Amino acid sequence: MTHFSFAQVIKGALTGQKNWTAQWPDREPKASYDVVIVGAGGHGLGAAYYLAKEHGITNVAVIDKGWLGGGNTGRNTTIIRSNYLYDESARLYDHALDLWENLSQDLNYNVMYSKRGVMMLAHNVHDVQSFQRHVHSNRLNGVDNQWLSAAEAKAFCPPLDLNPKARYPVMGAALQRRAGTARHDAVAWGYARGAAARGVDIIQNCPVTAIRRGPDGRVTGVETAKGFIAAKKVAVSAAGHTSVVMETAGVRLPLESYPLQALVSEPIKPIFPCVAMSNSVHAYISQSDKGELVIGSGTDQYVSYSQRGGLPLIEHTLAAICEIFPIFRRMRMLRKWGGIVDVTPDRSAILGKTPVPGLYVNCGWGTGGFKATPGAAHVLAHTVAKDEPHPINAPFTLERFTTGRLIDEAAAAAVAH
Amino acid sequence: MLLIHCPYCDETLPELEFAYAGEAHIARPADPSKLSDEEWRDFLFIRTNPKGVHFERWRHINGCGRFFNAVRETVGDKFLSTYEAGEPRPDVATLTGEAK
């Protein structure tokens, strides 16, 4: 693996760009591994990277039914923030944010983390009260978040329409300055490269069809399209397909899978300086470095694995964008797509051990898993290596649905987030 | 957009007229106070979430307002059948046979 540096760039320029090596090898599976991770998205690859780097476990395979980073890692709107209401969530997402800050240096791979600020717009009195409660809660937890008046919000994000007769008047906003975006593909590639350099096998286009258990109930390995692969431990991080995979191990999860859509516009010159979110009218917008407006829509109301999503949601989202940012009314949209997100009843992730010895799960991120990638991967690696949860993910158990100790971000955010 | 057949109105109408209401055939426990925590979890939170044939409730919210059940295949979102609430689960093999 080539270590990327300024010297390497110069060398590349002088040698006709012929000195670059493949960033990771595409492996065929070995007969057995210490750890098999199902799902080569950012979370799964990241967990493999931290297992190798921090826990010295390198006999690891990351297996995906498609190509790496081809699921929700490559389909999200790349928003990163940590301004969650509850203590447990704030700790988990802020842990991720701490790792995002130094991720490019850590991976020697530019994930283009941009602290451009995420601004959540308040359109009515309820929004104002709810967001101010979030701001206070966040500050008690040491999480960056501040309240902006409408004029301050306009100064921070000039395309905003402050007309008091607007359909969705802006009454203020909560701003997390540390929040922003990152290049989602680079996150998967950077982790893949880092993990592969430490000996992790990345096996693509190899669907896992079943998880196998021994007579004592313990995990013995996974059945795949390329045959049985033995494993001492299996971690499932398969987003919308987690419940399908886990069912083969006899574990039923409180998950439902829905299509979540996003879309991008034609590319334009830099105009939009931050990420703006409007929870009450379901509009999420930012501008990519290529110049496209990246717009997040909502989930369909019904369970589906179609990876498409319905057009009415897109219409609804664009109607809201046009009302809040009239400047974009004549823009054309280039393409839209869907990803399948796994949603829990309390809209918080399930990250930890399962009733099956040697089987771990990282799922239930719903519509907001990308922002948690480094944090989730880091604590999942800890959980797998030590066979006990990290203090940060200890509250995110599967048992909470039995005990009733939910982390009810559904009520806290009022929408899927 | 999905086109959904309301068994009460006997009309096939756009999805916008309907509200999804979760998995079908989940009966409320007859004697709730007898349930263990695990049984409550299963009743409240655990869902089938199949990649395949799914039994689900819909409500014709902008029409007759009534709840009905549907059988839908969750990969292609094709409806195999809709039927009135209270009717038993239809046989999937018959439905998929008819769909071909």
UniProtKB/TrEMBL annotation, chain A:
GO terms for molecular function: nucleotide binding; sarcosine oxidase activity. Keywords: Cytoplasm, FAD, Flavoprotein, FMN, Nucleotide-binding, Oxidoreductase. One of its GO terms (biological process) is tetrahydrofolate metabolic process. Its cofactor is FAD; FMN. The keyword Ribosomal protein does not apply. Pfam families: DAO. Its EC number is 1.5.3.24. One of its GO terms (cellular component) is cytoplasm. It catalyses: sarcosine + (6S)-5,6,7,8-tetrahydrofolate + O2 = (6R)-5,10-methylene-5,6,7,8-tetrahydrofolate + glycine + H2O2; sarcosine + O2 + H2O = formaldehyde + glycine + H2O2. It is found in: Cytoplasm. It is an enzyme of class 1 (oxidoreductase). PROSITE patterns: RHODANESE_3 (PS50206). Its main location: cytoplasm. InterPro entries: FAD-dep_OxRdtase, FAD/NAD-bd_sf, Rhodanese-like_dom, SoxB. Residues 35-79 form the Rhodanese domain. PANTHER family: FAD-DEPENDENT OXIDOREDUCTASE DOMAIN-CONTAINING PROTEIN 1 (PTHR13847:SF287), SARCOSINE DEHYDROGENASE-RELATED (PTHR13847). Belongs to the SoxB family. This is Sarcosine oxidase subunit beta.
TrEMBL record, chain B:
The keyword Cell membrane does not apply. Pfam families: SoxD (PF04267). Keywords: Oxidoreductase. Gene3D superfamilies: Folate-binding superfamily. GO terms for biological process: tetrahydrofolate metabolic process. The keyword Ligase does not apply. It is an enzyme of class 1 (oxidoreductase). Its EC number is 1.5.3.1. InterPro entries: SoxD (IPR006279), SoxD_sf (IPR038561). One of its GO terms (molecular function) is sarcosine oxidase activity. NCBIfam families: soxD. This is Sarcosine oxidase subunit delta. It comes from Amaricoccus macauensis.
